[in-house]
Design brief:
single chain; alpha/beta; Rossmann fold; 2 domains; five-stranded antiparallel sheet
Length: 273
């Protein structure tokens, strides 16, 4: 059975010219695997993740023929019920920890707060679980890092802390929205290794949202390609270079190569889309 099933998902916002669908009829299933969602900025990738989490801001409206998580229908759930799912069952890692971590609360206290909010464990057990979560994301001195404030750690370390905060409650689903875009190239692979390891060891489902085709092709099992709010192609990650849709082929053709000989990179011919 799929962990997440989505059928005909639409996210609509009102405008001066009438309602606009930023996600248009999206359908997919996610098991305990790594699913990549790629596309240009504005294609609806992030809004898809927020719709699943129940985080589309008003006056946005989410509708779907089916939106089930682990057999539970998410349509029409109250905000209180959704809060009960966020954290223990599903989590979302945002792209820049500087805007996601509270700057005036120590890192360890923020991670423990996630457990306290959901009524998990006593104080001593929460601290032990917090240190284990920091160790799980390959922080070698969790005691020291737990005492620091967010501004005292690097971007890469901050992203690891965010992942630790999301997995400390052992959710079944993690949505990672551009989790490496704010990081140096040298640490991107480390963060992705951590996510892949968590999926493999804990049996989680991962939805990796990105504009980086090469990264998603390397780290995911399947890829959904989005354009203008719709999925235009679905393919195995290893088959990216064999894509058939003109949009996907255009994205692939625009990627620079190490042995690049072209004077100019091609751009998308949108008249064919």
């Amino acid at each position: 059975m799929s962990l997440l099933s989505v059928r005909n998902l639409r996210v609509t916002f009102p405008t001066d010219h009438g309602p606009v669908d930023v996600v248009r009829g999206l359908s997919f299933d996610l098991g305990r695997e790594r699913l990549g969602i790629v596309g240009e900025s504005g294609s609806g990738k992030s809004m898809t993740g927020r719709a699943v989490m129940g985080l589309v801001p008003k006056p946005g409206r989410v509708t779907a023929d089916e939106l089930t998580f682990d057999g539970q229908d998410l349509r029409g759930l109250s905000e209180e019920a959704m809060r009960g799912l966020r954290g223990p069952a599903m989590s979302m890692v945002l792209q820049d920890p500087r805007f996601s971590l509270n700057p005036v609360i120590r890192i360890g206290d923020q991670i423990e707060e996630a457990m306290a909010v959901h009524g998990r464990l006593g104080k001593r057990d929460r601290r032990a679980r917090m240190l284990d979560a920091l160790s799980a994301v390959r922080i070698t001195d969790p005691e020291r890092v737990a005492r620091l404030y967010p501004h005292e750690v690097s971007g890469g370390m901050g992203q690891r802390v965010m992942i630790a905060m999301m997995v400390v409650l052992e959710p079944a689903l993690m949505i990672a929205d551009e989790p490496t875009s704010a990081l140096d190239v040298s640490v991107r692979g480390q963060v992705l290794d951590i996510l892949a390891d968590l999926v493999d060891r804990r049996g989680m489902g991962l939805m990796l949202i990105s504009h980086d085709l090469n990264m998603v092709a390397r780290w995911c099992d399947r890829i959904l390609v989005m354009y203008h709010g719709e999925v235009v192609e679905e393919l195995a990650a290893g088959a990216l270079m064999e894509a058939q849709h003109p949009y996907t082929r255009g994205l692939v053709a625009s990627l620079p190569k190490i042995d690049e000989t072209r004077d100019r990179l091609p751009v998308l011919d949108r008249s064919r889309l």
